[in-house]
């Protein structure tokens, strides 16, 4: 009986400690940011009660949605026009941050252009997509969150 218990324990220990070598390793956020150019795919506003609204086409013009966002290894954020060019040039937050330095602290992306400092909590990322969140308090004192979904180009 002791032999069976020992063998069963040994087998359980052997298989429970196996390492999953096929599990993907997530690259560090700065490396992911610089590895591709990015485009905004969707912007959602999540309200305090948990409901949400798609603001993509309300906040951004079509000529802004094809803009290319890049994070240089030199620490400079760049926004380039896509095929469609806004006339007059867009006033989106990304346009206003063009040429500004960027840094990552923990999983927060910080882009600062003069007095314009934008912080995005990056909650998910891989080599094809990212999710950025910006929490704020509205004029009623309620917590709301903008969610930006980005795709690699």
pLDDT < 50 stretches = none
Global Rg? 22 Å
Instruction: Report the mean per-residue pLDDT as an integer.
Output: 87
What is the CATH T-level topology?
A: Lipocalin
Q: What is the CATH domain class? A: Mainly Beta
Shape assignment = globular
Which range does the strand content fall in? Answer: 35-45%
**CATH architectural grouping:** Beta Barrel
Could you give the count of β-strands?
Answer: 9
Q: How widely separated are the two ends? A: 62 Å
Write a structural description:
The chain is an alpha+beta fold and 153 residues long. It has a single domain (27-152), classed as Lipocalin (Beta Barrel), CATH 2.40.128. It has five helices and nine strands; from the N terminus they run H-H-E-E-H-H-E-E-H-E-E-E-E-E. A seven-stranded antiparallel beta sheet has the order 2-1-9-8-7-6-5.
